[in-house]
Amino acid sequence: MSQFSNQVSRRKFLLTVGASAVGSVLLKGCLGNPPEPGGTQAQTTSGAAPAANINPEQAPETPKVKLGFVPIVESAPLIIAQEKGFFAKYGMTGVELSKQASWGSMRDNTEIGSAGGGVDGGQYQMPMPHLITEGIITKGNQKIPMYLLAQLNTHGNGIAVASKHLGKEISLKMNGATAFFNQLKSANTPFTAAHTFPQVNQDFWIRYWLAANGIDPDADMKLIPVPSAQTVANMKTGTMDAFSTGDPWPYRIVKDKIGFMAALTAEMWKNHPEEYLALRKDWVDKNPKATKAILKGIMEAQQWLDNFDNRKEAVQILGSRNYFNLAPEILENPMMGKYDMGDGRVIDDKSMAPYYWKDEKGSVSYPYKSHDLWFITESVRWGFLPESTLANAKTIIDKVNREDIWREAAKEAGIAAADIPTSTSRGVEEFFDGVKFDPENPTAYLQQLKIKKVKA
Hints:
Blueprint (H helix, E strand, L loop, with lengths): L5 H12 L46 E6 L6 H8 L2 H4 L4 E6 L3 H10 L8 E4 L3 H6 L12 E6 L5 E6 L14 H10 L5 E4 L5 H12 L9 E4 L2 H10 L4 E5 L2 H7 L3 E6 H4 L7 E5 H6 L1 H18 L5 H8 L9 H8 L2 E3 L5 E3 L9 E2 L2 E2 L5 H13 L11 H8 L2 H10 L16 E2 L5 E2 L4 H7 L8
Parallel strand pairs: 1-2, 1-3, 6-7, 6-8
Antiparallel strand pairs: 3-10, 4-10, 5-8, 5-9, 11-12, 13-14, 15-16
């Protein structure tokens, strides 16, 4: 593997992810719900959309595909496309949604593909599609080429902290908390925080928050991958101080007085990219029309979800046994942008809710290549990938990111030209600490950062 340097990242992944083989260190569904045996094949039950009069030239090569999902709000477009009949509307009448026990199992099932009992693709944290393509997190470093096809959502995550730390100035901006972290470190009881899978979204969110506040996540504390359900139990017993979590965990954490929300990722990076739809390259290459049909169904679901009048129905669907298996009221407030942070703050702002089709900065669904570049640059920042990766970043991204397929599908679906981005870059991004990421100069971004592993 020439571009991503196997020896650097694979060794780290074996140390942190390898234990998933015994099911003990990775996410067991972000909501703590076990998967249905053999996965869940959902049947359309609610208000299915009428079948489209499909142009024979656009008819899918196959109506069947198996898509993996983890039961968190990021998976909503897949579930709504299935349940509202949007997949079927475009000829994908045989979509199977398979609930995954962990991100580790999602990776494993992607490796073997649906022919081997796994999946053809589905929902992924970033940059998992790139890491799988380059064989960095696969068994034996086998390269499984992937195509990244759409962004599923923005927002929907945050940093939860144990209630015992209320009043210790642990918040979005921590002016006085560094001394507290140092005291714990000196007493050999370092602040311990968790995320659900190493070197992807939720790891990056908590690392960025800590580092922006002067805390080195690799030197000043312990940061480890742990299943969400186990993390909450550890937080209750006092052995876990914080974790990077996704909706609707904030509701449960605060309601059960387990902890409070120090920050939402929507506060850290407004309108940030979250999780993505990706498929194995071999499946897409064999079924290009079916791929676009899947995308059309996802796009329609995303538009449906962004009508807030539909969100009450959405949480009823998502909360059902086949999917999240929880009371709909646990989902409703976060989906409406309402957060009791548990520390006296209450956020009631729809702009902080998850968005699926369009946010304040424009398209959510379109997979901007500039966002891929940020995830790769952040991987270099923390030493997950060698600095030399940046020199090859365009090649790496172009190989995986198929925004061109998204554009084709959008045009075939009759999406308004104004909703189809004309650039593969969303431009300069700004974070809560004032740091800016210019995709034209990722090295300059790294140079701004005080805490990092890379020397840039």
